[in-house]
Amino acid sequence: MEAIVAINAASVQEACGILGVSRSAYYAWRRAEPTTRDEQDSELLPLVRTVFQKHSRRYGARRIAAELSDMGHACGRRRVAKLLEMQGLRAIQPKSYKPRTTESRHRLGYSPNLLLEAEQPTSINQLWVGDITYVPIVGGVFSYLATLMDRFSRRIVGWELGQDMTEQLVLAALTAAIRSRGPGAGLIHHTDRGGQYAGAEYRAVLRRAEMRQSMSRAGDCYDNAFMESCFGTFKTELEMTEYQDHAEARGEIASYVAYYNLERKHSALSYLSPHQFENIKRPAN
């Protein structure tokens, strides 16, 4: 027994030497009672981990703190960051934003950029922004995702995934948005200058819906930066590399869009989801 005690004492002395602390400080730490904050941290640790896992590593400290507050557990961002670090949890990191221009060499005509003089939207169905992005499929092929977002609430109001980047692709997203939202006359519909949005059939649907078509200026990718940023979020949080086939991509994207609209907290919306934000901002009848 004396030999074991001697070995333990030697181990403690060696460890203290490595860490640069005295043995008296080590034993004082051993005798210390846990503080109230320590006890609170012990309760918060599993909650932080649960929220982190629920959102598939998409939430960092700010959004987790907001969700804990919704659950009745007030906790600041710095404290959540510490609790994440203690558990070795790290959120998916977004890639830097690299805007891209769209090839728009067509002779269908361009609409003016109405956003240059428009006021910021103050309600839903005042401004929709749209775009198309590539979705990689195994074998070096692509599917194409067209979406329309309500600029006020960041809600994805219509989307379609197709195997060809055609006018029919964006038409499907537009008709889905009109069907789900029923917008009134005067809504601004803004996209880049891609030929899909300039087609006769697409423009006819916009006219029937009494929408005002707006397009980005030539070569100015920042005119549609909201959709570019949205696609960056999609690809980061879906950890999009290559899907096995078109059907798998459609299923994953459908699930994510529902999550994005109903659950994902947006910093620009005071850490509310688009669904929550629209409910709060809904005008009284």
UniProtKB/TrEMBL annotation:
UniProt GO BP: DNA integration
Transmembrane annotation, as ranges: none
Origin species: Pirellulimonas nuda
Example GO molecular function: nucleic acid binding
Integrase catalytic domain boundaries: 117-282
NCBIfam families from the UniProt entry: transpos_IS3
Superkingdom of source: Bacteria
Name of the molecule in the record: Integrase core domain protein
Lineage: Bacteria, Pseudomonadati, Planctomycetota, Planctomycetia, Pirellulales
A Pfam family assignment: rve_2
Gene3D superfamilies the record matches: Ribonuclease H-like superfamily/Ribonuclease H
